[in-house]
């Protein structure tokens, strides 16, 4: 399939910018609290009162609705709490075993180009997955990161089977980003059954452990940090 016509090799901050803070939240973070803290930090970054930050979290099981979410894609609204996220995109799932990386970056210090920013986020995930010999791939018509599943029959029409392993949903306010990416390490994949993930039917969802890899959250965090430095620059 066609890939994006953007070179996502790097998305660094301009010279003299401080390194990005790298924060790992212990335990399961209440979603409403996380959303409120992101809003406050993004405002502080816009005002020059805070450093850019990557905030790595896990949430209890829940669904979030982006600004393009369609009611028909919420298949079981009573299964878990449903939050209006305010980010772009449609419905997605968060839960234990999934690494959510909230990305609060100032694109004015980098590049005021939303498409290039999304491509850089994809590149970050793809490089991190490569540490575990997983080939993550982009799709021209679908944001996120996908893995081919040659072990399964092809889809209707002969297209090869593939699963989504990472979702991307961001929001920009005065060129400061918040929300971010979600990568499946070992979530309960049956929990995706309450929604049409990202509004895309006909494709599956997978995780590192589902692919047969004994990867821990800490393993992924190390890979994410190394790949982030390559794509976005230094971290504190």
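-> sequence recovered:
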């Amino acid at each position: 399939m066609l890939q994006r016509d953007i070179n996502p090799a790097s998305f660094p901050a301009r010279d003299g910018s401080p390194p990005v803070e790298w924060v790992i939240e212990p335990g399961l973070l209440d979603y409403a609290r996380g959303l409120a803290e992101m809003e406050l930090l993004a405002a502080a970054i816009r005002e020059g009162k805070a450093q850019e930050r990557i905030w790595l979290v896990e949430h209890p099981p829940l669904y979030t609705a982006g600004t393009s979410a369609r009611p028909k894609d919420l298949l079981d609204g009573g299964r878990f709490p449903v939050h209006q996220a305010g980010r772009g995109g449609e419905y997605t799932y968060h839960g234990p075993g999934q690494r959510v990386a909230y990305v609060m970056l100032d694109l004015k210090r980098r590049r005021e180009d939303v498409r290039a920013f999304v491509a850089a986020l994809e590149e970050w995930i793809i490089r991190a997955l490569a540490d575990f010999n997983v080939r993550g791939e982009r799709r021209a018509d679908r944001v996120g990161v996908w893995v081919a599943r040659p072990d399964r029959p092809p889809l209707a029409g002969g297209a090869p089977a593939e699963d989504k392993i990472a979702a991307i949903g961001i929001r920009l306010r005065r060129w400061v980003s918040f929300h971010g990416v979600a990568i499946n390490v070992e979530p309960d994949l049956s929990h995706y059954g309450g929604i049409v993930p990202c509004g895309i039917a006909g494709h599956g969802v997978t995780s590192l452990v589902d692919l047969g890899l004994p990867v821990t959250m800490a393993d992924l965090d190390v890979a994410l940090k190394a790949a982030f430095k390559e794509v976005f620059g230094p971290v504190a």
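Residues 28 and 59 are 5 Å apart (CA to CA).
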